[in-house]
Structure formats: structure tokens, C-alpha cells
Amino acid sequence: MNPRSDFMVLPFALLIVPAAWALAQAPQPDTPVSIYTAGSDVTSPQLLPSTLPHTYAMGNCRANEDGAITFSLIVDAAGQPRNIYFLQPNGDDLDLIALREVIGDRFTPGARAGAPVAIAASVQITLHACLAEQKDARGKTQDVLQLVSAPVQEIKPPVDPPKQAVLVSGTGVSNNPSDPISDVKKLEPGIAKPVAFPPSNFALSQGRILLGPGRYKVSIVVDRYGLPERLKILDAELPGREQQIAAFFRLFRWNPALKDGAPVPVRVEATNVGGAGVGR
User: Fold this and answer.
1) Does the pLDDT at position 144 exceed 90?
2) Is the pLDDT of residue 273 over 80?
3) Which of 96, 188, 256, 269 has the fewest CB atoms within 10 Å distance of its CB?
4) What average pLDDT does the chain have?
5) Where does residue 211 rank: exposed (0-12), middle (13-18), buried (19+ CB within 10 A)?
6) 274/213 Cα distance (integer angstroms)
7) pTM above 0.85?
8) Beta-strand pair 118-135/33-36
9) Higher pLDDT, 137 or 14
10) Model pLDDT for residues 115-126, shown as the tens digit of each residue
11) Are strands 228-236 and 164-165 parallel, antiparallel or unpaired?
């Protein structure tokens, strides 16, 4: 092993949620509200037509990428999606396209006794995409994941809905470089720790390609969505492979940490063994 005395900090550029669709709203008071589920006396929220712009591949596909990604969320009394996190990720960049869709969703809110209330639900987003060749500003050709057709969404019953929850939006991780950990919580009593999903077959295959033999220990912020942010390399058998390590670990997804029924960002440690898996 080759322990490092200093941390190597690597950005997850592809995982940073653009400000235009990160729901950068004024923060809500940290006061739990009652959460309902659709039933005999509670109407279900209704998804409104999407207003997000979409770019579709124009016949220059190199490989198809299809998947169905499911999120947990709460639709608040104003029809905004809150407390969004992964229930069933795909384990690749389709997750990021799906996340963009659900963040941009708007609803006719559900109601109880005629009054709008916060409703727990899940949303499944089915995507058909492909890798398409595209030239960047310098004229260099690169493969970009683009939609082939419009996303299809379906509202489904919630999974383990809370009776009360603090309603939150966004990643919960500050984008201010001078204050990089302002909103990152420490695991402590009252915060349920994040639980990693099993690595997808794609992630495992990428790990074997990118890393090969060798053990790597990293520290990662798991944001409110269950995505990895702000990776630090703590230990590496084969140093000098920071970009490969970052590319591997960015494919992992978590059920995020929860406090008062709301997802919160926390820092955790993860270890791969021979590029074939992660121990937590």
C-alpha cells in the first residue's frame, strides 16, 4: 500500500447539477411538515407537461443506451418536487438525464379535504438514448449521450414514506469554492447513514478497465440525491491514477442519509478491491 499524507481532491464535473435546474430556491425552515400518501381521502398529484428543452440525436448514433430510473420524492403543496433521491438508479449517465427531468417536473398538487398537501410518491422515468458523435468548439469529435425520444414518466406509490419530513431541494452541497463543506453533515445520532446500491454491471466492467488490480480508499460526499461529490483519495496501491479512480467512483449511487425525513449530504468512505467492487 502507498498511503498518502495529503488528500487529492477531484471534482465530479459531470455530476454537478446545473444552476438552471437545481431548484435554487430560498431555503425552507427546518420544520417538518405532515406528509400524506394518495388514498381514499387524499388525491394524487398530477404530472404537468414538461417544459424542459430536449436535444435529440439526429441519426448519428453509435450505441443505444436505454433504462428505467426510479426516484423517491415529495410533491409539496405548491406542486414542486422535493426530497428527490434515487430508488432505482441505472448506474451510468442515464441517471443524470433522468435526474434533470424529475428536478424540472411540476405537478398539480395532491389535496386532502380540498386543501393542497405534501404527498409522498415515486416517479419512474424511462429513457431511450444513444451515444452520438458531436464536435466541440475546437472541432474535436466526441461521444455525447443524447435522447432518441422524449422521456416517459409514471407516478407510482411511495416506498417507506415518512409521516413528517423537512422539505428540501437541491444537492445540499455548497457550490461556493471558498466554503466547500458548509452544508455537509457528519454522521451522528438522528442521521440515518447512506446505503450504497450494488454496483451496476457497467460500473464493475468500467472498474476493471479503468483500475485493474489494486486497492483504493476514497472519501466521498453523498449528496441529497444519492450522487457522489468531492472525492478525496485517501489511499492508493498504484498512485498517479487519480482520474481513473474518479471516473470509477462517479458511477456509484446511494440512498442518501436522512435527517427528519429529509435527505442530507454527508461524507463517507469507500474502498474498491481490484476494481471489482466497493466495501463501505
Assistant:
1) no
2) no
3) 188
4) 82
5) buried
6) 4
7) no
8) parallel
9) 137
10) 999 999 999 999
11) unpaired
Closest C-alpha to 14, from 270, 246, 264: 246
Phi, psi angle pair for 19, to nearest 5°: -60, -30
Distance CA 217, CA 230 (A): 14
Closest C-alpha among 57, 248, 29, 268 to residue 150: 57
Q: Is the dihedral of CA 82, 83, 88, 90 positive or negative?
A: positive
Cell numbers 487529492: residue = 8
Q: Cell 430536449 appears where?
A: 54
d(CA 6, CA 148): 44
| CB of 6 closer than 8 Å to CB of 242 | no
Residue showing cell 453509435: 62
